[in-house]
Amino acid sequence: MAMDKFRHLSEGELKEIAVNEPGAVVQVLTDLMLHKVPLAGIGNRDKQELLAVIVGVEELGRHLLLACLSSGCESSADILAKEGVRFSAQHNELCVQFVAGMARRIRHEGREVFQLPLPADLLCLQRRSIHRVTAPQTNPPHCRLQISDSNALDSTALDISISGVSLSYQSDEPIFIIGQILYGCRLAVPGVGEFVVSLHVRNQVRLTLAGGKRVWRIGCEFVDASSAIERELQRYIIKIERGEQARK
């Protein structure tokens, strides 16, 4: 199993945890199922992407049940049945990754799902501690996400560090895929300036904010940010922390 293909960060940024004891594998996958954590998948041959969620973990039968979240379920079915898929999910500060075996369609609780063998092992990558601050509710950083050459989306920062930023955006359905890289995004940091950055989408979840507003949150890593950008972000972080200390 070529788990090294999953690594996107340098060894210095990651703490690697291998999970290969059957009970532990079941426990991790069950946790992903209970929290309805989306799995981002990519085909082994044609690299087509799909989004799924675990709806069953059969420990005795050694099977995993997945429901497709992507549009174009027929295409996803073909990828799962013929190629196997490499899956990645972000949960509790861990990136859980595994290679899926070939799947087949079955009926489960009144709907069509995909049944595939439980993975023999998982690779859990944990980001080492990186200092980040919660963005202020008044006048937070904003980022214009470049979806395509002619389409952009405005988002608001929830927290920020020199290595990445968490952003919220409004949409009925998720727009981004875990692992996707967004080029040419414009990050506007109050009192500091505007930077053109590339963002690597690491995780995506649905949140309910105060007042009941529903938004999507994406955790993004800066791709090859310059040392000048890192210095300016560090200056902003120090400014926010000093403001917090003064209020306390």
Properties at a glance:
248 residues, alpha+beta, Pnp Oxidase, Chain A, Thrombin, subunit H, 9-stranded antiparallel beta sheet, 6-stranded antiparallel β-barrel, 16 strands, 48% strand, disordered N terminus
Give a description of the structure:
It is a single chain. This protein is α+β, with helices and mostly antiparallel strands and 248 residues long. The protein has helices spanning 22-34, 73-82, 227-247, and strands at 14-19, 38-43, 49-58, 63-68, 85-91, 94-99, 104-108, 111-117, 122-127, 132-134, 142-148, 151-161, 164-169, 181-189, 193-208, 214-222. The strands form 2 sheets. Strands 1-9-6-5-2-3-4-8-7 form a 9-stranded antiparallel beta sheet. Strands 11-12-13-16-15-14 form a 6-stranded antiparallel β-barrel. The longest helix is centred in the C-terminal third of the chain and has 21 residues, at 227-247. The protein starts with 13 loop residues before the first strand and ends with a helix.
Summarize the model shown.
By secondary structure, the protein is an alpha+beta fold. Helices cover 18% and strands 48% of the residues.
